[in-house]
Write a structure and sequence with these properties.
31 strands; 5-stranded antiparallel β-sheet; Beta-lactamase; alpha+beta
């Protein structure tokens, strides 16, 4: 082969006239002398090139890696759009066939020269001067020099003589400080192969969907042929590869090689993610420059939650349930263990994060309302609340809440009202506490973008507030942590920060006890339902208006789990409640978390007392109940009476009451109601005592009014202000 090339050059040289031959020898002499002078200058001291280790450390991948808490890769995410660069691949992990073909194609005397190839330079000089071909003479070392030294980037499309000499100088320095293996390893990791594919890892996975160690000879021929002209058309690449095959005498089937090359080069390249189970977490954590992060996510739990969500949504598809989300938080550490924002590849909107999307809360806010009322000692778990029809006059008209099943059960305890998620008693508790106080408490629980209380009205008790699963689940974790709220985290072993007490330990314990009470919730949900677990848990479901959203949030002694199902479009589901929609998924997640451990009920704090309560409502003859110390019953003449301060239930503070113009003035009545029906309390309106007892009828008159509830000692027990509109 070498003899044929030499003969060809001699024949071309012999055709030149004497003047041209003389000119050639002059140019050659000048070139050799110039090389000698340049070589002498290279021997002088100058700034050394960067070290191999420095170049390797500076390698930044275009794809960042998210790991779970155990170090396993759970997601790959591209963070650099300027080029596709993957892991740095050691030379030992690259197939020998690729190394052989690259050296044969780019620099066949690589292991024999000292940085530049004088023979190649002479051949290139002759061909460029006396033939129509254009040939470069850059060795692999010279190419690496240009890759690692940005100052060697040419000012134009091609390097000038000066720039080429500087490139040679740097190449010589590299040869002195780097090994040939280091130079070759750097080359295969930094060279462009096709389009934006930079480095052997990106090229191998992007074109052949395999690691560099598994490249065969046919694939190596294609990659080596791409280096000279990465964006050449497939036909040119194939022809170049065929010539390279002949040059190295590769033993491959030409027909099979051509068909494989055409198929691979004509299709768009694509790098498949090695893992893709936490896309939303990856988007939150991985940024440009951060290429490898370990998160709090449990990879096995995450994968299980994804599969479980897909399984249940497939079952619910016939009821127009198409999306869902799951989050799992560790109670003590605040670490997020699972974060499934949607159903994944089959989602109607793959990039929407269902955990952060705002939707109406439904009944899931009721535990916080009752916790507030118990904390303020306005009610106890044994307080009797009338589950009867209720009309609440407001500035917008009469608000008339209804229960989910459209039924009214009469007198119920606060325990039963909360556990069975009764709507009317919840509105009565909100009337007692006031919208502003409840809304302030929701803000302390971490709910954001809250409107003015008048925006929601008294339906706030039933969850007209827009929340997201992230905030809602962490709010329930506050109850699990005995009333202390703290921020969640994706970072392992971070110190707890930004924590605050929202509820007392006593109120949190009592509400948690209610939410775990299977018998108390049986009024609405029956004894056997997905909220019942074989170990201790406390949970609450919720359904928004028109069945647009299903929620189930609950906690054990170690974990808090939140589940939402519905549709990102907001279209209603068909005949789906929290018990049949989100709760079964919640139940299965809890079973997975506690497959090897149990969950024990929380220990009662020092500030609570369990007392015997004798009821006089026909609900039960007697029950045992938990109370905040000082609110437990006292016994008088064999009758058990709650020890608590009476409060005004109706009218609520700052309410507007409208007079019906079709009813004669003398026949119109507004009824005031207190939490206790006893003759020891008196109603005082605008400074005048108007009646006594738990109920009081009053003929309304227009204007602003102040209403007080006092005892026999004239002590003010409660006070509200309201307005009557003529």
């Amino acid at each position: 082969m070498r003899q044929r090339c030499s003969a060809r050059y001699l024949m071309a040289f012999s055709r030149l006239n004497s003047k041209s031959q003389f000119l050639f020898f002059c140019v050659l002499l000048i070139f050799v002398c110039g090389v000698g002078l340049c070589y002498t200058s290279f021997c002088t001291d100058s700034e050394p090139p960067p070290s191999f280790d420095a170049i390797k450390r500076a390698h930044i991948k275009s794809d960042a890696i998210l790991r779970d808490r155990y170090g396993n890769i759970i997601h790959e995410l591209r963070v650099d759009i300027t080029g596709r660069k993957l892991d740095w691949v050691p030379l030992s992990e690259v197939s020998n066939s690729l190394i052989e073909t690259l050296i044969a194609s780019e620099d066949k005397r690589f292991f024999r020269h000292c940085g530049f190839d004088l023979t190649a330079l002479l051949h290139a000089l002759f061909e460029n001067a006396f033939t129509s071909k254009r040939r470069g003479a850059s060795t692999i070392t010279m190419q690496v020099a240009a890759m690692v030294d940005k100052s060697l980037k040419p000012e134009g499309k091609r390097r000038s003589v000066k720039e080429k000499l500087m490139q040679i100088k740097t190449a010589l320095k590299l040869e002195k400080t780097w090994s040939k293996q280091q130079i070759l390893e750097t080359y295969i990791n930094l060279v462009s192969f096709r389009g934006e594919l930079i480095g052997i890892s990106a090229a191998s996975r992007g074109i052949f969907d395999k690691e560099p160690s598994g490249l065969c000879m046919s694939e190596s021929l294609i990659l080596a042929s791409l280096v000279k002209s990465p964006n050449a058309i497939p036909e040119d690449i194939i022809e170049r590869a065929k010539r390279l095959k002949i040059a190295i005498n590769a033993d491959i089937d030409v027909g099979e090689f051509q068909s494989t090359a055409k198929r691979l080069l004509h299709r768009p390249y694509s790098i498949k993610q090695r893992a893709s189970i936490a896309p939303h977490v990856a988007h939150y954590l991985l940024k440009k420059g951060q290429t490898d992060i370990t998160s709090t996510i449990d990879g096995k739990l995450q994968d299980y939650a994804i599969g479980l969500l897909e399984e249940y949504l497939s079952v619910l598809k016939g009821q127009n349930v198409n999306e869902g989300a799951i989050i799992v938080i560790h109670n003590q550490t605040s670490e997020i263990l699972a974060y499934v924002g949607n159903r994944g590849i089959s989602s109607t909107a793959r990039y929407v994060d269902g955990i952060r999307s705002k939707r109406q809360a439904g009944s899931t806010l009721k535990p916080f309302l009752y916790a507030l009322a118990i904390d303020q000692q306005s009610i106890t778990a044994s307080s009797i609340i009338e589950n009867t029809p209720l009309d609440v006059p407001t500035e917008r008209g009469v608000y008339r809440p209804e229960n989910y099943d459209k039924r009214f059960t009469g007198s119920v305890t606060a325990r039963v009202a909360l556990a069975s998620s009764l709507n009317v008693p919840a509105v009565k508790v909100l009337l007692m506490m006031g919208k502003d106080m409840f809304l302030e408490k929701l803000g302390e629980l971490g709910f954001t973008k809250l409107e003015d209380s008048d925006y929601y009205g008294f339906s706030l008790a039933l969850g007209t507030l827009d929340v997201n699963l992230f905030e809602l689940t962490n709010a329930f974790r506050t109850l699990a942590n005995r009333g202390v709220w703290s921020a969640t985290t994706f970072a392992i072993n971070t110190a707890k920060n930004n924590s605050r007490r929202v509820f007392s330990e006593e109120a949190s314990f009592i509400v948690s006890h209610i939410l775990s009470d299977r018998e108390a919730r049986s009024t609405t949900f029956s004894l056997e339902n997905p909220l019942a677990t074989r170990y201790w848990t406390a949970s609450k479901t919720g359904t928004s208006k028109d069945m647009r959203d299903n929620w189930c949030i609950g906690f054990s002694d170690t974990y808090t789990v939140g589940v939402w199902v519905g549709n990102f479009s907001g279209t209603p589901m068909w005949k789906v409640s929290g018990i049949t929609g989100a709760a079964p998924i919640w139940h299965e997640i809890m079973n997975y978390l506690h497959k090897n451990t149990t969950s024990k009920p929380p220990k009662p704090p020092e500030g609570v007392i369990r007392a015997f309560v004798k009821m006089h409502t026909g609900i039960n003859d007697a029950i045992h109940e938990w109370f905040i110390a000082g609110t437990e019953p006292i016994s008088t003449n064999d009758k058990t009476t709650p020890r608590r301060k009476p409060k005004i239930i109706y009218p609520p503070n700052d309410v507007y009451i409208a007079i019906d113009p079709d009813i004669p003035q003398g026949r119109q009545k507004v009824f005031f109601e207190a939490t206790e029906d006893t003759q020891n309390i008196h109603w005082v309106l605008n400074g005048d005592v108007i009646c006594r007892g738990g109920f009081c009828g009053w003929t309304p008159s227009g204007g602003r009014h102040t209403l007080r509830l006092i005892d026999n000692n004239l002590k003010i027990l409660d006070e509200v202000a309201f307005t009557v509109k003529d």
